[in-house]
Amino acid sequence: MRTGEGWLYLATVIDLHTRMIVGWSMAQTMQTQLVIDAMEMARARGFIRQKTVFNSDRGSQYTSTAFQDWCKAAGVRQSMGKTG
């Protein structure tokens, strides 16, 4: 998104049941840490627990080793759509 100070990337975590944004993060670059920060916010607010299923596309942030490690440590199961 464009701001008065340049471009920012926004990562959100949406609860599929309520459709509410339960975690978010903004940064100047689209890197894995942006997604992890949004997930951490959702977890801190009680929306991510053991066996939570997280649906995403196959973007590099979600397929990275760092994000996969975070999900494993948090007990989150990743679910990704098919390529294409």
UniProtKB/TrEMBL annotation:
GO biological process: DNA integration
Organism of provenance: Paeniglutamicibacter cryotolerans
Listed GO MF terms: nucleic acid binding
Cross-referenced InterPro entries: Integrase_cat-core, RNaseH-like_sf, RNaseH_sf, Transposase_IS3/IS150/IS904
SUPFAM superfamilies in alphabetical order: Ribonuclease H-like (SSF53098)
Protein name per its UniProtKB record: Transposase InsO family protein
Residues covered by the Integrase catalytic domain: 1-84
